[in-house]
Amino acid sequence: MKLAVRFLSLFVVSSFLLSACASAPDAGGGKKEGGKLYIALALDTLEEERWTRDKLHFEERCKELNLQCEVTVGNKSAENQANQVDNLLTKGVEVLIIAPNNAQQAASMVEKAKAQGVPVISYDRLIKSDQIDLYISHQVTRIGKMQAEYALKKAPKGNYIMVYGDAADNNSLLLKDAQLEVLKPAIDKGDIKIVTEQAAKGWSRNEALKIVENALTQNKNDVVAVVASNDGTASGAIQALKAQGLAGKVIVTGQDADLVALQSIAQGEQTMTIYKPIKPLAFSAVDAAVRLAKKEKVETNATIKAVNKEIPAILHDPMVVDAENMMQTVIKDGYQLFDDVYKNVPSEKRPRQNAKLFDKHYIREEKFALSEA
Predict the structure, then answer these.
(1) Where in the chain is the domain with CATH 3.40.50.2300?
(2) Which CATH number fits domain 141-275+320-372: 3.40.50.2300, 3.30.450.30, 2.30.30.140, 3.90.1280.20?
(3) What's the average model confidence in pLDDT over 292-296?
(4) If you ran DSSP here, which 8-state letter would residue 297 be given?
(5) Is 165:230 a contact under the CB 8 Å cutoff?
(6) What is the mean pLDDT of residues 120-148?
(7) From 1.10.220.10, 3.40.50.2300, 1.10.3210.10, 3.40.640.10, which CATH number describes the 2-138+277-317 domain?
């Protein structure tokens, strides 16, 4: 049965890739490996599931377009990432795509690349440099607003804990500002009170656990919501809530639609997450890299201010996912599998499976790749 599913998956994906290539940009004109264009993706980490997806889809698109590609991982170290970028430049990379560990420090990487005439795409996280050629991400400010709006709707009164992401990540600051903008009217009215707000260094689950543990102790468990900026910090928050018998009783937000988070939502512990389809994000980065290498125009849909300059941007749409719409979003899209998401939920309490959701068009080879990564 497993072999049959794998065969069907490969067949469907092969058909999809053939159709995708028809509208792909021409990747000719490269200089390395038999004329292939050489591009690289410098990632900060692979600890979170979503970054594994970024890597897989980046490599998938490069293979489709017959590019020479390389992925480096800094393991949450700005120094490691800087050394890796230096090495890529030495090897003659033609376009750099960087998801920075530290938005400020990454500016020096951009400066070195531009000195060699290498275009730079700031990926998912904005680098604080006015020399980047393009920014590709999801609508980060909108994500922060969606998290806070959801929490406020579910818990319009009471004490809130705010768990922000790493302070060195510009996305964390954007999320924070957006969340507080939404919550400010309720704070001013006295409907809600932020009893703790703190950044989790490295977006660490353990840091979030400590933040929420301390906040619960200081407030005698009188908390109605934890606005956690991503699923990793949400997981830490839930561990702290579980210890106090509060899991499922306190609103917990998240972001990334990681499998663990969706399982937690299915079990009634985490309340929501933000689904950001990764495949369109990674594919658009590779396509843009090809066009930048060829000095062609890149179609964008926004601009974003980096230092004192408006940078062209491609911003993808996020969406809220909770217990009510998981079947129609992440499962229907094949982003996560039904049996994986609901594996800890008794069969009689699982939602009914609509046959249309499991049509062959939704089977994804990435499922097998992720399980083997």
Answers:
(1) 2-138+277-317, 141-275+320-372
(2) 3.40.50.2300
(3) 97
(4) P
(5) yes
(6) 97
(7) 3.40.50.2300
Whether the Cβ atoms of residue 120 and residue 107 lie closer than 8 Å to each other: no
CA Rg, the chain, in Å? 21
Place of tokens 């703790």: 196
List the Cα angle 294/297/301 in 5-degree steps.
Answer: 140
Question: Tens digits of per-residue pLDDT, 147-172?
Answer: 999 999 999 999 999 999 999 999 99
Local confidence band at 22 (pLDDT 50, 70, 90 cut-offs) = very low
With 0.70 as the threshold, say if the pTM is over it.
yes
Looking up tokens 């407030």 gives 219
Separation in Å, CA 180 to CA 38, 118, 161: 42, 38, 12
pLDDT tens digits for range 330-362: 999 889 999 999 999 999 999 987 645 444 333
pLDDT over 90 percentage in the chain: 83
- The one-letter amino acid code at 30 reads G
Q: What own/partner pairs with CB < 8 Å and gap ≥ 24 does 344-349 have?
A: 344/263, 344/266, 344/267, 345/266, 345/267
